[in-house]
Amino acid sequence: MHARIAGTGSYLPEKILTxxxxxKFVDTTDEWIRTRTxxxxxxxAGEDETTTDLAEKAARIAMLDAGVGPEDIDLIVVxxxxxxxxxxxxxxxxxxxxxxxxxxxxSVEAACAGFLYALSIAEKFVATGSARCAMVIGADTxxxxxxxxxxxxxxxxxxxAGAVILKATEEPGIISTHLHADGRYKxxxxxxxxxxxxxxxxxxxxxxxxxKGNEVYKVAVNTLGALVLETLKANHIGKEKIDWxxxxxxxxxxxxxxxxxxxxxxxxxxxxxxxxGNTSAxxxxxxxxxxxxxxxxxxxxxxxxxxxxxxxxxxxALVRY
Length: 321
Ligand code: ACO
Hints:
By secondary structure, the protein is an alpha/beta fold.
């Protein structure tokens, strides 16, 4: 059995924060943000709007798109680093909202690579016959974790959710997935607090995402460059076979560098960073849904998905849409 993408959906919060808005409260410029990152604006969740709220909206659209109801879904896997609660997990909260009962529902923590991790896990459930119709989500509200006084990170991160419904089929579908991690890089990109750290920094009110951007940049380009080539090699296919690159949207310069490794013109890369910013685990499914909905990505085409995030974690998927 194989897993095929039967439907997609996405959701972005209503509030839009432009670079000009940021200029008003942090020492930055539209020019710096656009030239260094490619970001022009981003969507920010409301004060009471949670990751599950965003995920629910994306999930409902994906279910409609795939023509499935709550009774059809037999697995929910959510990639997120920003759960509403410590427990129940976002998958379970989502399950209740969607009136789905009894099937496994869980979240995976892999930062920006969370969706690729979730997709890979769900694909294996479907391929082994353990699930026939899986919901895979990437959803994050990183805006709630950044220090809005830190110009080096607050201009980058944003909120959103993307959803994919996988169905069991005889033909692939998701042809292969490739996951990696290396915890030696933990200090280059992290949120340095949590439950068993006692939320001491959160209580003191001085915590945000910490990133050594320059160093992350270098490792990201090299690692993703190797990952896309690994994905092609594992499937014995040449670069020219890829119809669309659907990359993690962290920085336009990283995206362009990976497209170059694949000899792909930018016209065959789905770029949403200008309007989405870095939405962490939501970034790849948001871009996938955008490309499908505006008609660029067509049934039967070959897609290469990739993402890289804190940990470091990184992953790719070769997909026949
Ligand atoms: N506005 C104006 N100036 C700024 C800003 C800002 N928002 N932020 C930093 N600067 C300044 C710095 O202080 C520095 O000034 P200095 O030269 O006087 O010291 C200068 O700009 C250059 O800073 P760099 O950090 O060297 O800038 P760089 O060109 O590397 O761009 C960026 C920074 C955009 C963060 C880039 O390094 C990057 O994209 N890194 C990778 C991010 C990534 O891929 N993350 C992984 C995924 S995210 C996840 O997993 C959650």
